[in-house]
Amino acid sequence: QVQLVESGGGLVQAGGSLKLSCTASGSTFSIDVISWHRQAPGKQRELVATINTAGSTNYADSVKGRFTISRAYASNTGYLQMSSLKPEDTAVYYCNAFSNTLGGFWGQGTQVTVSS
């Protein structure tokens, strides 16, 4: 009954911006960590960013200074603000919500395409 719905993907030109959203639902569902991952064609899925309940964040070196992860606690929503996008950012982006009680759950994925 835990569901994650992603939105915000699309096609943008290099240097542009997109903001991804991931909303989780579930009665008494407490999310301890929200993370974003991406998978480009022919590559393994890689961790992009994480945020915990205290608001501490971590980023992959490839996106530091360009991406910002955040969360809205009351609505169980995670966000990934992406700026200064590059063609190499093109991938399917997946959110993951991890609960110490229920485990981890994946969103359906959203396509981000950055043209040169």
Question: What does this 3D model show about the protein?
Answer:
- This protein is mainly β.
- The chain contains no helices and 11 strands.
- It has strands at 3-7, 10-13, 18-25, 33-39, 46-52, 57-59, 67-72, 77-82, 91-99, 103-106, 110-115.
- The strands form 2 sheets. Strands 2, 4, 5, 6, 9, 10 and 11 form a 7-stranded mixed β-sheet that branches. The protein has a 4-stranded antiparallel β-sheet with strand order 1-3-8-7, with no helix packed on it.
- The model has no long low-confidence stretch (mean pLDDT 94).
Offer a quick outline of the entry.
It is globular and about 45 Å long. Strands 2, 4, 5, 6, 9, 10 and 11 form a seven-stranded mixed sheet that branches. It has 116 residues and is an all-beta fold.
